[in-house]
Amino acid sequence: DVKVTQSSRYLVKRTGEKVFLECVQDMDHENMFWYRQDPGLGLRLIYFSYDVKMKEKGDIPEGYSVSREKKERFSLILESASTNQTSMYLCASSAGGGYQPQHFGDGTRLSIL
Amino acid sequence: AQTVTQSQPEMSVQEAETVTLSCTYDTSESDYYLFWYKQPPSRQMILVIRQEAYKQQNATENRFSVNFQKAAKSFSLKISDSQLGDAAMYFCAYRRKRDDKIIFGKGTRLHILP
After folding, report:
1. Is the pLDDT of residue A86 over 80?
2. Residue of B46, B102, B109 to mutate, interface with A, max A Cβ within 10 Å
3. Every domain of chain A and the residues it spans
4. CB-closest option in B45, B95, B105 to A90
5. Residue boundaries of the structural domains of chain B
6. Pairing of strands B64-69, B74-79
7. Across chain A, what does the average pLDDT equal?
């Protein structure tokens, strides 16, 4: 079974801090994704990556950056955390090819105080 | 731009009954993929069922089936013999063939009444 592991289930940070959310997958998937999930808004794509050192902006990239130095790891970075970034963050991975499903991690519930 | 609309934010169904969740999407593409994902409370999101747009036959997975109407751009999910474990948030998703970007609807929360 594919396993997508997010480093923290719950995280509390302060406004202005630099925050790192880590995601690791164990199935050698090419594609990795970061979403944020908010009530009534569904899942919104922040960034995605097709390969190592490659990244593409999603629908809401402002205030975020990503890093993919190794194929199995995809990091989401909040450069200067703000209260409106309090949310549930979901990482996903998939093999190449549009019919391949995405496999999700458990999510990180991030609170910015 | 592609959009995915789930018009029912919340639904309830009696255990053992059948329920249909609706999903419509907007696209100018002719070849794409459609998915339904399930997110149980405080648990991981998992794939329920998927459909390739060029296939006319509706996908089925045990108690789950879809009604795919390409011309109407509709992709509804039918759950037969509903069970308590089906209680979850259900997301409809669209993925175009030419890249791997996926667009999710806002979700439908399904309650199962014992």
Report:
1. yes
2. B102
3. 4-95
4. B45
5. 3-113
6. antiparallel
7. 93
CATH number, span A4-95: 2.60.40.10
Query: Is pLDDT at B12 greater than 90 in this prediction?
Result: yes
| Nearest of A85, A89, A75, A90 to residue A112 by alpha carbon | A85
Q: What is the mean pLDDT of residues B51-76?
A: 94
Please tell me the predicted confidence (pLDDT) of residue B43.
84
Q: Which of B37, B101, B106 sits opposite A41 (nearest CB)?
A: B106
Nearest-angstrom CA–CA distance, A56 and B41: 30
Our CA angle for A56, A59, A65, nearest 5°, is: 50
Q: What is the pLDDT of residue A57?
A: 93
Residue B75 has pLDDT above 80, yes or no: yes
Query: Which amino acid appears at position B19 of this protein?
Result: V
Distance (Å, whole) CA A3 – CA A64: 24
User: What is the arithmetic mean of pLDDT over A84-93?
Assistant: 96
Chain A residue with minimal CA distance to B34?
A99
Size of interface A-B (CB pairs under 8 A): 48
- Determine the pLDDT at residue A99: 82
Q: Which residues pair with B89 in a beta bridge?
A: B39, B109
CATH number of B3-113: 2.60.40.10
Residues of B in contact with A43 (CB under 8 A): 91, 104
Question: What pLDDT score does B22 carry?
Answer: 98
